[in-house]
Amino acid sequence: MIARVAWLLARPGASGTATLVLPVTAFAIVTTLLLTVLGGAQSFWTWTDDIAFSYQLLAVVALVLLVVPLASLGGAAARLSARRRDDRLATLRLLGATPVTVSALAVLESTVLALAGAVAGVAGYFAVVPALALVPFRGAPLGIEGVVLGAPVIAGAVLGIAVLAAVSAVLGLRQVVISPLGVRTRQDAPKLSWVRAGIAAAVLVVSFGLMSVLQVAGSAMVIIAFLAAAFGGTLAVLNLVGPWAIRLVARRQARRATRPAKLLAARTVLESPKAAWRQVSGVAMTSFMAVFAGVGVALIDLTAGDAGMDAASAQLFADIRTGILITVIGSFLMVACSVGVNQAAGILDRRDLYRSLDMLGMPERTMDAARRRAVMSPLRLTAIGSAVVAAVVMLPLTGVTLLVQPLALIVIAAVLAAGIGVVALGLVVTKPLLRRAATEG
Amino acid sequence: MSSFVIEATGLEKSFGTTRALTGVSLAVRAGESLAIMGASGSGKTTLLHCLAGITLPDAGAVAFHGRAGRVGVNTLNERGRSQLRREEFGFVFQQGLLIPELTAIENVALALMLNGMPRREATSHAAGWLAALGLAGMEDRRIGQLSGGQAQRVAIARAQVTGAAVVFADEPTGALDSTTSADVIGALLHSTTGQGRTLVMVTHDADVAARCSRIVEVRDGRIVGERVGAAA
Fold first, then answer.
1. Where are the domains positioned within chain A?
2. Kind of pairing, strands B89-92 and B166-170?
3. At a CB cut-off of 8 Å and minimum separation 6, what does A62 contact?
């Protein structure tokens, strides 16, 4: 019975094939990016000399940083797949289908779409491999054999994507199972507490204190422990305070908005500050890391330049800079994809509303400006805010870097600006979908 | 000056091989309430969309007699028709189709802000309309926190706040129970024809149509009958 109903639900509805094509495309992009990241990281484990461990350690840091935006993108793809069916599944619940039936349908459908997307994503990965092989580390390109993953890893990634989709479908549809009307009426208006700000301020003060003590600390182990505590603590703070800060700014924007697009954008963010944060949180981590590590590398470079540095260490620091840039770019690419996927889903979900706004005479540029602002405003706040937090935590060192190696900070700022541009591009790509929704319904 | 606010002549419209309108001519008098009745698929919504400049007819013409004189609706480009709809027309849809993220007052004020009115002034006008429609005290509620009837009143306020010469309503009571429906129609008539404005309403509900001043019946894309309603 479940298979028969699933087949009925899988048939394209009013929105045409988009309900099927969009999640499949999203999962394909997730898979391609995941395999590309894994392929790049894998090449670091082909080295076996003394300095290889340092590279592997840094690769793990980069992987951890990329996991956040990748998970966010994966989650967006899975939610898109699940949400496309939310209403119909909620209707099935209203008709008397059991929670087990609804869950089974959601899992089955999401998993099948994820598998189809993942397989397409593997093809995408192999298309990217030649470019990935050209990325230079340790003075030479990584090479094809270094970045091509083995069959077990690829199969594992495909399976992982399918499991992610299944788990996300179950979690996403818990609401439908608990209360079908909850989904149909969409009345949630989450609030976030001031407590978050208090905790964040406390952790920032501690981190700043750690970094100040760092300058007089003796052993390398103590320095690393302090650095790790300050880095980890501040990252945790970013996650804690991010949605709250986004909500605070959006509330202010909603109060002060003088133009329709600004008002609409601020209210869209206020509808779910957590969702707005989830979409851009990867950038927060990366932006924080870029400044944090960028300042560190610039200073090490400087001090080593005075004392003289061996060729291997010089290469390592040059590669760390490359790694930072690649991680920042990768992170922004994933956020751009995530934004594209969420926007496409949002437009499809709200096509009746967009059609009605067009009928009322709302110019398309106002609708477009509203959705652009709803993404770009939290993104700018997140990217710049995280960079500023990192600069504050590293304050004395940031000041020194700014004075003696301004180029290092300028490069980081330029990459962040380019990243924000890439996300804006992700929004432009979905504009035709908005036009179609507004004019064709 | 013509006593007609909208004049349509010889409207033809097809979607693929389906003929939605066949040679429809209709004139709407200023200040009247006109109900367009018909079964599902009869072409009544297509007719409303052509009159309002949402859809362009394949043949025929629609003229609007407004503050700036006679305007050929179907000769305007997309932008011109958008501006006309924004400044001269108001719309009420079956599901309200209000913006769920906005509060009731913001939904209404937005219509004025789109025409360039400062927010403070727009909010003040919007509050007046909401109060007139019995929604005082509910200004800051989000749409999900309102009942169906209250949401439709917000939609009526949004349609009227700009001073629209003509309000087009597409099954405005289609999703409401009979008591709320009677209430909403009362509010709609009072805020339109009661203020000297014009109402063009598509409905399949005979009781709702009967409250208008004139009723035209559409079948298979043609007007097949016309009669006087209770409000005449």
1. 1-187, 194-441
2. parallel
3. A41, A323, A326, A327
- Comparing CB atoms, the residue among B79, B99, B144 nearest residue A186 is B144
Q: What is the model's pTM?
A: 0.75
Asked if B110 and A187 come within 8 Å (Cβ–Cβ), the reply is no
Amino acid at A29: I
Burial class (CB in 10 A: 0-12, 13-18, 19+), A382: buried
Closest CA to A436 of A18, A23, A27, A85: A18
Q: Any idea which fold B4-228 has?
A: Rossmann fold (3.40.50)
Tens-place pLDDT, residues A229-250? 666 777 777 777 888 889 999 9
Strands B222-228, B214-219: pairing is: antiparallel
Q: Does any CB of chain A come closer than 8 Å to the CB of residue B101? A: yes
Pairwise CA distance, residues A119 & A221, whole Å: 45
Terminal alpha carbon distance of chain A: 33
CA B219 centroid distance within chain: 21
- C-beta separation of A283 from A327 below 8 A: no
Interface residue of B49, B86, B99, B161 to substitute, partner A, most A CBs within 10 Å: B99
Contacts of A363 by beta carbon, 8 Å cutoff, 6+ apart: B79, B82, B114
Task: Tell me the backbone φ, ψ of residue A372, rounded to 5 degrees.
Answer: -65, -45
CA distance A348 to A11: 16
Could you state, in order of their start, the residue ranges of all structural domains in chain B?
4-228
Residue from B84, B37, B83, B75 nearest B56 by CA: B75
Kindly report, residue by residue over B102-155, the tens digit of the pLDDT: 999 999 999 999 989 999 999 999 999 999 888 999 999 988 889 888 999 999
The DSSP string of A51-115 is THHHHHHHHHHHHHHHHHHHHHHHHHHHHHHHHHHHHHHHHHHHTT--HHHHHHHHHHHHHHHHH
- Can you say whether residue A21 is alpha, beta or left, with left for phi > 0 and alpha for psi between -120 and 50 degrees? alpha
CB of B110 within 8 A of CB of A153? no
Q: Which two tokens stand for residue A355?
A: 């059609």
Interchain CB distance below 8 Å, A353 and B82: no
* Between residues A97 and A174, the one the model is more confident about: A97
Chain B positions touching A258 (Cβ under 8 A) are 113, 118-119
